[in-house]
Design brief:
Blueprint lengths: L5 E6 L15 H16 L4 H6 L6 E8 L8 E12 L2 E10 L4 E11 L10 H4 L1 H9 L7
Antiparallel strand pairs: 1-3, 2-5, 3-4, 4-5
C-alpha cells in the first residue's frame, strides 16, 4: 500500500479565532495533529494502537510558515505527507488550504522521536519491523 499523502477536511470554529476573527496561530499545530492522526489511521494504525505497542511519538521539532489567515467558518483541506523516516525519528510535512479558493494558507513540518514508555529512544526497525516497513513504503524518504 502506497499513500503519497493524506487529505483531511475541517471547518474553522468560532472558538478557533481571535478577537480579530482570524485563526489563532497555535491552532494550525492542532490541525497538523489532525492530519498526522488521519495519515496514520489510513495505514491501519492509530496513536492509541502505537501507544499500546509502547511506541510513543513526542514532537521534537515544529515549524509553521503563515502565508494567509484562515477565518471563522472557512472550510480547510489539510494535506499531510510523511516526508522523512529514520530509525529513531520521522517527520511530517503539512499544507493547509482554504477549500473554496484552493489558496495555500500555511506550510509546516513536525519531527517526532520514537521513544518507549519511559521516554528512552528506540530503533523502530528493531522494535517493530512491520511498522517500519509500512512507514518506509509510505514515506517520500525512500533511502535506507
Amino acid at each position: 500500500m502506497f499513500l503519497k499523502h493524506m487529505e483531511s477536511f475541517l471547518r474553522v470554529r468560532y472558538k478557533d479565532t481571535d478577537q480579530m476573527g482570524i485563526v489563532y496561530y497555535a491552532n494550525y499545530f492542532v490541525w497538523f495533529e489532525v492530519g498526522r492522526s488521519d495519515f496514520l489511521r489510513s495505514l491501519g494504525m492509530s496513536y492509541k494502537s502505537l501507544e499500546q505497542s509502547e511506541i510513543f511519538l513526542p514532537v521534537i521539532e515544529a515549524y509553521c510558515e503563515y502565508k494567509y489567515p484562515a477565518r471563522y467558518d472557512d472550510e480547510l483541506r489539510v494535506v499531510t505527507t510523511l516526508k522523512m523516516l529514520q530509525e529513531v525519528k520521522l517527520g511530517f510535512q503539512y499544507e493547509i488550504f482554504r477549500l473554496d479558493e484552493g489558496i495555500l494558507l500555511v506550510k509546516g513540518e513536525t519531527v517526532h522521536a520514537f521513544v518507549n514508555k519511559k521516554g528512552k529512544p528506540l530503533v523502530l526497525r528493531k522494535q517493530n519491523p512491520f511498522l517500519w516497513r509500512l512507514l518506509k513504503e509510505n514515506s517520500l524518504d525512500m533511502a535506507d
